[in-house]
Design goal:
2 copies of one chain form a homodimer.
Chain A lengths: L25 H5 L2 H22 L1 H10 L9 H4 L7 H10 L14 E6 L9 E5 H17 L7 E4 L7 H12 L3 E4 L7 H12 L3 E4 L1 H13 L11 E4 L8 H11 L2 E4 L12 E2 L7 E3 L4 E6 L12 E8 L8 E4 L2 E4 L14 E2 L5 E2 L4 E3 L2 E3 L1 H9 L4 E12 L2 E10 L1 H5 L1 H19 L3 E7 L13 E3 L5 E2 L8
Parallel strand pairs in A: 3-4, 3-5, 5-6, 6-7, 18-21, 19-20
Antiparallel strand pairs in A: 1-2, 8-9, 9-14, 10-11, 11-12, 11-13, 13-15, 16-17, 18-19, 21-22
Helix pairs in contact in A: 2-3, 6-7, 8-9, 9-10, 10-11, 11-13
């Protein structure tokens, strides 16, 4: 059995690679992609047979689609398996409360309960089995090893511990790695200022949180006279938002902390959500296909797109026994490469720019498709930008208008000329990248509220301020 | 080795008692108190020799006091060991950052970092070793078993996950118990209303948090049209505040939720902090002396007081290897009995009224010693009380005056007569219990902010609104 690769998995909780090894599981991480695909097909068959036997949800769905686990003998066959979307999971839990008819383990095996925030309707409950919890810890530790983290390192977790799986996955990965885990959390009044003090005091090697929060934390520290570079961080790793793969945001964070930034994270449902993650040597995100098999698919046909092409990730658990997700469609937006040039030598496909948007975040202005992440990217490259903005889409008569309200650094705000200069510069650069005219409005710094969590920046005013909000709950 | 009682401890992570057993470790919990004391002396010798060898903090302190581990052959001898107070721990960490010269394990063995909130000065960092983390989990699971919790039960944790050890201790105890752990947390905007929805959806058997928060949660649920009784809770267990042993507060919570209330918790430094905890059959708190040896001491002589007498708890870890606390003086206030009549049959001493105040919370008005917990107790028995209050001490000329500002239920506030009736009733009852006149001011419900955490209710206005705040950080 290659490095404990089986279904269900059976990881040795005492296993550690050689400290000098770049890889946790050298064979699984660097094997020939064709050989890996052959093994993935076996795992898919295992998990599909398991789900067919234990989950009426899958049995009914597949029977209806005329698909049976026995028929899936290639990755192309697998593309015929109907995808799962979040609305179906919600419906299943509404019909079979609280955990849905895709639980697959006895209720007494449930170890942890978590869930989505339910911002777009009924929340979804995650029931994670005792065995899965160990599997998740092992997988997250393995990815964190790839980031260069080692036993004894101090890892500071600056994200809220509640429903959100991001914090918990990092926690148990860090514990399994035998790091010094500092689960500081976030979200309550005054916590950010205290986080800065504790980081100054304990000098962690790594920080985990969301990119927005890391920027907010740096601002808070600086305002309190603490220099974020003095935390001594070597690494910040992020999930929950696209920012860490947007070059301008990434650079800004790297400069503020004088430390490396690594992006990771897919969806809470897919925990071990680090199944897409960068490594110490490789930017963007590797798809750790032997934990979770990821297809980047055409949003309509839901078949894989070619290397270099853009699509939406569709995820399949290869190692989960409680609530396994089989072809869960994310609705996120990315593009992928075959990863043959990954500097770290891992032979996984790669998302060179991470996961940078939502299919449904995209909006259209006068025929141009606009992604909010593109606007974020432009603004972060403009000197004088204060760090926060809102995107407001209005209709002026028959024409849609794009208004970007951005804040400016304090010195800029002091001078009318500087403000106007910033405004014109931002309009010019946005126009060049987006292909449509954007009006820019400059506001003083601190006018736009910062968020501890996922920034929501688009206001669609065409339909009476209906806010475009995407489903939260994914790390 | 009696049920893994040794130093350092070596618990079997797979051990479970018979499901019908009232006790996790029947022998340790029900043994003859004299025999237990003899064993405790052995454990004290073990931990003192260990600390003397590994911690300059203890070696210096004891050398200076002329005390050596070899000399401690009775519990009376042990009373000569100088106590440790929190200021010394802070100083040790300031001199030997970040974990102080009482760490006792190699830095690489540190598993988790937590700490105090630092409301009264430099915070203290807790560095908890990997082995200790398992010991703590086993001990907390054992106490929770005594509360009637069993594998497969759903335990909802409604307290913040950050520095605060209360949440983490409950988490790992619940995990070790093989409960379904739902670590929901608390503290961020909107979380309370969502907590109510999730409890309605998942129907946990038990809730953990602070008494103030349980009251706030019930109010929030009722305001949202959710009946807390419908959560189906059987048990709420509490730490972090004295409330759960104050009969009126306890009764109020029991009525709101139609469930049993159990009090527990000593200090974060003493984790496994459930070393003082009630059981399913026994009210108040048992002192689980084989985990943490507790002496209730005269605050001046720091020798034990007799059964039935009031004093301050002084705690000694018998099973911790990282940062063991040996005679840590709490500054809390309690009284104890020998526990020979404990309904559950455990032979531990008992704190019949829990831990109900702080030595330094006490204030004096015209010669009478007043404990805030006594005022809390009186108000909670008065019909029409809205659930929150503040205690304001003013000086009117030469005389100290006690003002209690309390809120009233909405119906009361609507009528001037009812308000005045409530005011007079409260003044009469407070006067009778406190022995001094208290002026009462009635304010409408929701005027006084609720707290998610430990309620701070005393405002000493004699010294320009200097707030009497006690050190936070203890569960």
């Amino acid at each position: 059995m290659m490095e404990s690769w089986s279904f269900p998995p059976d990881y040795d909780s005492e296993y550690f690679p050689d400290p000098d090894s770049r890889y946790w599981f050298a064979e699984r991480e660097t094997m020939d992609p064709g050989a890996r695909e052959a093994a993935i097909i076996e795992r898919i068959q295992d998990v599909m047979h398991y789900a067919y036997a234990h989950a009426p949800f899958y049995r009914n769905k597949w029977d209806e689609a005329g698909v049976h686990p026995d028929d899936i003998n290639s990755l192309e066959d697998f593309e015929r398996v109907p995808v799962v979307n979040k609305a179906e999971l919600r419906q299943s839990q509404e019909d079979n409360p609280p955990f849905g008819n895709y639980l697959c383990v006895p209720e007494d095996d449930i170890h942890h309960i978590h869930g989505t925030s339910g911002t777009t309707g009924r929340p979804t409950a995650f029931a994670i089995g005792r065995g899965d919890w160990q599997t998740i810890a092992n997988n997250q530790a393995r990815v964190m090893w790839g980031m260069g983290l080692r036993p004894g390192d101090t890892i500071f977790i600056g994200s809220v511990f509640s429903l959100y799986m991001g914090s918990w996955g990092t926690l148990i990965g860090s514990e399994r790695l035998h790091a010094k885990t500092f689960p500081f959390g976030a979200g309550a009044t005054g916590m950010t200022a205290r986080a800065a003090l504790w980081m100054q005091m304990t000098r962690p090697k790594a920080f985990y949180g969301t990119p927005s929060y890391a920027l907010h934390l740096a601002e808070t520290a600086i305002a309190d006279g603490i220099e974020p570079k003095d935390f001594g961080l070597e690494l910040l790793f992020f999930s929950g938002e696209p920012g860490a793969s947007i070059p301008s945001v990434k650079n800004r964070i790297q400069e503020l902390y004088a430390a490396q930034v690594i992006d990771c994270g897919t969806m809470a449902e897919m925990t071990p959500w680090m199944n897409a993650a960068g490594s110490k040597e490789t930017d963007g995100m590797l798809l750790w296909q032997d934990m979770v098999y990821t297809e980047v698919c055409d949003p309509t046909s839901l078949a894989r797109v070619g290397w270099g092409k853009q699509g939406t990730p569709v995820y399949t658990h290869l190692e989960r026994t409680s609530q396994p997700m089989i072809r869960l469609v994310s609705g996120d937006l990315t593009h992928w490469t075959d990863g043959s040039d990954n500097p770290c030598g891992r032979t996984y496909p790669r998302l060179p720019d991470g996961i940078y948007g939502r299919i449904d975040d995209m909006f259209t202005i006068r025929g141009e498709n606009i992604y909010p992440s593109a606007i974020d990217g432009v603004l972060n490259e403009i000197p004088g930008y204060g760090g926060e903005h809102r995107i407001i889409i209005t209709r002026d008569g028959a024409m849609d208008e794009l208004l970007v309200r951005m804040d400016a650094e304090q010195e800029i705000c002091a001078s009318e000329d500087d403000r106007e200069g910033l405004r014109q510069n931002a309009e010019k650069k946005l126009g060049a990248v987006l292909g449509v005219r954007a009006r820019v409005e400059i506001v003083s710094s601190d006018t736009i509220p910062r968020t501890d969590f996922k920034a929501r920046r688009v206001i669609d005013d065409r339909d009476l301020f209906k806010s475009l909000s995407s489903e939260a709950g994914e790390p």
